[in-house]
Amino acid sequence: MRNRPTSKNRYRYAALCGLAMGTAIGTSIALTRRMARHHQMPNLKIWRRALTEKHGEVQGAILAARVQTRYEALYNERPHFTHPALRWHLEQKILPGLALYQVLSKESNDQDAVLAEVGSLLVLGLRVFTKFVNMYRYLPLPFAIRRQILRASLLAFPQQGWDIDQIEQSERSFAFTIHRCFYLDVLTAYDAPKLTALYCRLDDLLYATLSPSIRWERTKTLGRGDDCCDFRWSRVKPGQGTTRLIQVQSGVKREVTGNIHSSST
User: What is the pLDDT of residue 256?
Assistant: First the structure.
């Protein structure tokens, strides 16, 4: 039987996890600054490969070039926010997806097909983050570490862009409710509010890979037409860490309870 982790080991694992997170954030900032200097759109390389696989080498390359051009135009005309977190979300997350959507919308009148393709391409950008989240499966006391990281990560969602109410912060649960979302506000201003639900889906896929002893629940999202987003992570016995959330397919809500596997379909 494995010994229960001591307090010393807990701090050691927390420090290692903090170091890993700090390294990831530092790398992200460095890459962001580098891409900003060259106006290179995030995920362009993996999107170009996916576009080539679906549309053929010539058309895929043309679409990728158009997406990059559209991103540069959106970037040059972007609103300027004083808070660095808002700038990061806008430049690295929102504008790339928006550029992709606008270019593909000109190629097809089938909006459902366009949204499905944009959604599948956005999922491809999750791979690095999924590997980081998977670390929880190999750490002792994964919920305790996850709770500390959640507390720190809320700094990346400042009140200038989000209205967040902390509901619970205990040894067994970490929960908050979002009443206003920066992504929805910005995409609505760009006449593309439907894209918000695609970003909500990224949460569904990412947090489904957490440790078996962590259960993630979300039954409502602003991006899918609800009055709020209700996030909750809970510590449970191993094997009970299933997710509970609401998915939307073809405009119809349905509740899903269980494990969700990342896919591009």
Answer: 43
Using N-to-C axis directions, what is the helix angle for 7-38 and 142-153, rounded to 10°?
40
Half-sphere exposure of 149 (CA within 13 A, CB side): 23
Question: CA-to-CA distance for 231 and 185, rounded, in angstroms?
Answer: 19
Cα(88)–Cα(127) distance, rounded to whole angstroms?
A: 19
For the entire predicted model, the pTM comes to 0.78
Element (H, E) at 257: strand 252-258
> Which run of H or E residues covers position 188?
helix 182-189
104: which residues sit within 8 A by CB, 6+ positions away?
A: 63, 114, 117, 118
Widest pairwise Cα distance in the chain? 61
- Top mean pLDDT of 60-74, 113-127, 143-157 is at 60-74
Beta bridge partner(s), residue 244: 217, 257
Question: Which two tokens mark 70?
Answer: 């559209």
95-133 residue pLDDT tens: 999 999 999 999 999 999 999 999 999 999 877 666 666
Render 118-135 in DSSP notation, one character per residue.
Answer: HHHHHHHTTHHHHHHHGG
